[in-house]
Each structure stands twice: as C-alpha cells, then as structure tokens.
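Continuing the series of single-chain predictions for the mutant panel. This is the parent chain; the variants come on the following pages.
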Amino acid sequence: MPNADVDVPLDDNAHQECQTALRALERAFRDSGVHAMPKLGTLPGSPAVTVTIPLNEPDVQRFLSGGTLPSVDAAAPLRHLLEQYGIDTRVAVVEFGPGTALNVTLATGDDAVRLAALIIEHRSDAHSAALRLKAAFSKIGISEEHIFVADGTVLVGNVDVQDALTLYTVLGGGFNEEFAEPDLDDRWDPQGWRNVETLAELLSHVVSKASGGLLASTPNPACQGCISSRPHRITIGRASPQQALLLAESIATPGAPPDVGPTAV
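Parent structure:
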C-alpha cells in the first residue's frame, strides 16, 4: 500500500507544461532586462512556477509601474498589474540578501505563459531594439554577446575585429588593401595595431550612415602581452533605440554602398 505521506511528483504532461512555461518566463525576463529567478514546481498542489524578482534594479521599477514603487506595500503595483490581466498569482515581499524581493507564485503553467507575454508587452524600446539588432548580427555570423542595454540606449561594445570587418563589408564599406592580407586575430605588430584604428574610423562612417546618427567607433586593440588570450576589438558605440533599429534594418537589407569618405587615414 503506498505511503500517503510520500510526495508524488507531477505526471509527465504536467511537468512538460511547467517546463515550457518556465523557459518562456526565463526568456521574457532576460530579453526585457529584468533580473528574475523562476523556479519550477515539481509536486502536485504546488505552484507551477515561483519567481523571485529582486527589487533593487531600475528595470524592475519600470516594469512594475513606470515610476517609483510605494514604500508601504512594494508588492502592490505588480499584484494590481497581474489582476488586471487575469493572472492567478500571489505576490509577496520577501527578504533577499541585504535587500528585498518580490516572490511571485503562479498557479498554472498557463498563468506563467501569460506573465511572460505581459513582460514582453512592457519591454522597453531599447530592449526591443537590442533584440532586433542581435538577430541581425546573428544572421551575418556576428556574435551578439556584446550588445547591451544601458540607460535607455543600446551599446555595442568590444566586437572582435574580424566581426567588425564583416559588418563593414555588409554595410557597403569599400575594399581596403590594408585588410586584404593581415590576420588581425592572432598576431601583434605595430602595423596591425594601426589597422585596427583605421578599421574603427572606417566602420564609424558606415554604421553612422546606416543608423542615421553618429556612432563613433572606438578601437580597442590587444596589447603585445594579451594578444594570445583575446583578439583585437572595436566598440561600435552607444545607439538610441531608433538608431539600433535602423542599423538592424540596414544589415538585414543592405542597399547601395554608402559614401564613407576616404578609404585610408
């Protein structure tokens, strides 16, 4: 006879539903810049997903209310927002390290999926633009890991120099004989260091034209001692959400080569 005191795990279908909801929430929070820690429910009768959201980050404030959280009940804005969308949940304030966090318990996987959709709906313009730019970079084989959102802008920093050269070419940058032969990834010499500076200046012309505003690309060449551990890099710059969207569109549908000025410095 089975022991009634032993917890019985969720059946496979219910477990899969919760896992799908958890992944949707993780992706929605990550893409919206809101730091949160979703945890899967594993037992019948337990919440499908529990989410811990630290309250000490500015993106959380914007997600909840677009302003300052009331000090009397920090859970009230999110609780009210979820009620408006018919999401069955409980929201409480809990201690979290030296500060506090919201503890959100979602009764079903469907509630968690609806919360994920709500997070996406409240995503900032900068985070939406950053996602578009990441997708455009990925399609042309450029790593998206150096695209960040900071202070309402989209920062593209420390792109490997070979990726920078790819972007320059895709955006219509003309042929430059300085980049025809040298392998800029795994060697160091004074000429290679100067090539990185030249490429940064040329790249600045094409990305500024493509984004409709100035993006002053900055060279970050490797030093002689660190070239073995990291390649030369270029920071493309800090773009407004509109600039990031225009740059993403230019990458996805490149047109005629832009007028980038002289091909040497």
